Structures are given as C-alpha cells and as structure tokens.
Amino acid sequence: MAGKPSVLFVCVHNAGRSQMAAAYLTHLAGDKVEVRSAGSAPAETVNPSVVAAMAEEGIDISAETPKVLTVEAVQASDVVITMGCGDTCPVFPGKRYLDWVLDDPAGQGVDAVRPIRDEIRKRIEGLIGELGVAV
C-alpha cells in the first residue's frame, strides 16, 4: 500500500460494531490510517450502549452518526472489514476483504456490549500490526 492505508468498516446499521472498530482504529493509529465506517441499512443513531461502552475506554463517539455504505467508500479503501452485512457489501477486485464474526450489540445493554468492544479492540490491535503501521 503506497502512502497511508485506508480501512472501511461495514455492518448493517453502522450503529455498533463498525462504529467501535472505526473509533478504536482512529484512537490507536491516529492519523496514520484513513478510517471510514458505513452501514448497508444505517440506523438513525449510534447505539447508546455502544457510546457508553466506548466512553469507559475514554473514547467519545457520541457525535458520530450512522452513514450509508457507498460504492465510492469501498473503492477508496484498501481494506474492507465486514461485520454481518453478508451479500449486501459490494465487492471490488484488488481490495482486501475481512469478515469479522461478532455479536450484534443492537438492543443490548452495556454489560453485553463490553465483551464485543473488547474483542473488537483485540482485532484492531492485530490489524494495526498487519498494516505495518507504527503507533
């Protein structure tokens, strides 16, 4: 990857998993990685339990809003990480695709969101290593 790697996180509602993943990657890698997130059927707002769980980590995502997945976002990304959107995610040649199987935090309380958050953090730390980004 020439220049700064870019990563797109996609889930159905862009209200939970993809928001947490994008926030962690931004928090841990800073401006060394271009980060996007989107949903195939975006929700109205980010899940409040997800906002609360991330706040426990010192990461404020309360101002984030779910965004619709666009072909342009996929084309502009080096790595596309899907989380439960299955066949609704567009696939383009030359992109690296990863599918992270994670529980959906929709409708869950903070206690149920914490293990999902912690698993996402572990995967993001691994991803940063794979991207070869020094943090």
TrEMBL record:
SUPFAM superfamilies: Phosphotyrosine protein phosphatases I (SSF52788). Pfam families: LMWPc (PF01451). It comes from the Bacteria. Its EC number is 1.20.4.4. The keyword DNA repair does not apply. Residues 5-130 form the Phosphotyrosine protein phosphatase I domain. Gene3D superfamilies: 3.40.50.2300. Keywords: Arsenical resistance, Oxidoreductase. CDD domains: LMWP_ArsC. SMART domains: LMWPc. The keyword 4Fe-4S does not apply. One of its GO terms (molecular function) is arsenate reductase (thioredoxin) activity. InterPro entries: Ptyr_pPase (IPR023485), Ptyr_pPase_sf (IPR036196). PANTHER family: ARSENATE REDUCTASE. This is Arsenate reductase ArsC. It comes from Actinomadura adrarensis.
